[in-house]
Amino acid sequence: MSAPAVRIGAGEGVAVRTKDIIAWFVPLPGVEPATVVRALVLAAGAAPGLPVERLGELKESTPGLALAVVSLGQEFGRAWTCGDAVVTIDGPDDRREVKAAPGRIELQMFPLPRYAVRLGDTGVSDTWSHLIEGAVPAGGIAIVWDPSIHPQMPVRPVATAHGSGVPVAERADRGAPRFETVPLLSESPDGHEQRPAPLPLAGDEQADAGDEVEVAGLRCARGHFNHPHAANCAWCGLGMIQVSHVLVKRPRPSLGVLVVDGLATFTLDADYVLGRQPHVAPGVDGKRVREIVLSADRAISRAHAAIRLVDWDVMVEDLGSGIGTWVQQPAQLPFQLPPGQRVPLAPGAIVHLGPHRLTFHSHFLR
Questions:
Q1: Rounded Cα distance, 60 and 193, in Å
Q2: Considering 139, 156, 173, which residue would you say is the last residue of a domain?
Q3: How many C-alpha atoms does 94 have within 13 Å on its Cβ side?
Q4: Which domain holds residue 103?
Q5: Is residue 128 part of a domain?
Q6: What is the reported pLDDT for 360?
């Protein structure tokens, strides 16, 4: 069975794709979207398939949450909803909706492939873009195996980036655009316009299993793999003090998330290059090294900075940018990063690239 295309449409809401989980939710007042995204990433890593127990905990801890989640297996998919969120399954001979009753959750299985599985409001826009990894603003998601069934969802050129008047899609050497910029918030609480967060430009190919990097870590009493210095298991919360401190080597899990400008979240399971045209940096392949396209502002260098994963460390490196890269570790004053020097980021560290602000949140350390 061929892999489906995961497409997003502009609108209110947040689309998330991590591992085999694809989700869409409506941001709640007073709840940071990154909080929900982190819970979904942890749920994706907790167990294969759809970890209903984890999602139930997320629902209970976030009253009023409208969330739709789909997990895709080899032959079957599973859909989970709570609140007002809906998953629509369009099959060859039928159409069904997965929607929870008030105060409850709903779980259904369905055979694969279907023509399309839709989360959220997929009729909000005729402009669509692919989603490879991470969390981005979106009004809805369509998971499509046969694009001819849905001609209303072509990938169209992007108008402008950050209102700059410069089309992001104008890249003759790269062919048709595969992503667009869509805003999470149209306005900030004080009424001022928020600039939309960027989406990564990357290929549809996923990293092969053989490309996984192995690291040495500890298993909790339930067998979950953790950072060797974690005080509690990141997956189940059990204390690590009583476990045997014998290190084992396993494929490195996602180390956390990188929140860009408070609006878009990227999973830290690969390296990233950030800048105005980050694809010019050597090694960018959309797999082990992905792109985050920042604004077209000339103050931002084409390849400005990089986020590197080294064992369990998340490191930042300035790539010889014109205006420099500044790092502020928790409870410390910011400092400018010397070009070419890598500095490990502590949980909660902030990286400043001109007008852009990147925040690192760790899944394992506090």
A1: 33
A2: 156
A3: 4
A4: 5-156
A5: yes
A6: 93
